[in-house]
Design goal:
The protein has 1 helix and no strands. It is an all-alpha fold and 54 residues long.
Length: 54
């Protein structure tokens, strides 16, 4: 392999790795936000039930 082709290959692999890291990080952030939103929604849905029982 020539030096130029080797450098280009490593550059492409580094860009693919960075893109995958961004994708995975975005997925984790999305799932965390969705869980937080659902937990808040469940908590708000339970509060009126507690008030009716009193």
């Amino acid at each position: 392999m020539s030096l130029a082709l080797e450098t280009q290959t490593f550059t492409i692999l580094a860009l693919v790795a960075a893109g995958l890291m961004v994708l995975v990080t975005g997925g984790v952030v999305y799932l965390t936000a969705a869980e937080w939103r659902d937990r808040r929604r469940r908590k708000n849905a339970e509060e009126p039930v507690k008030r009716r029982r009193k």
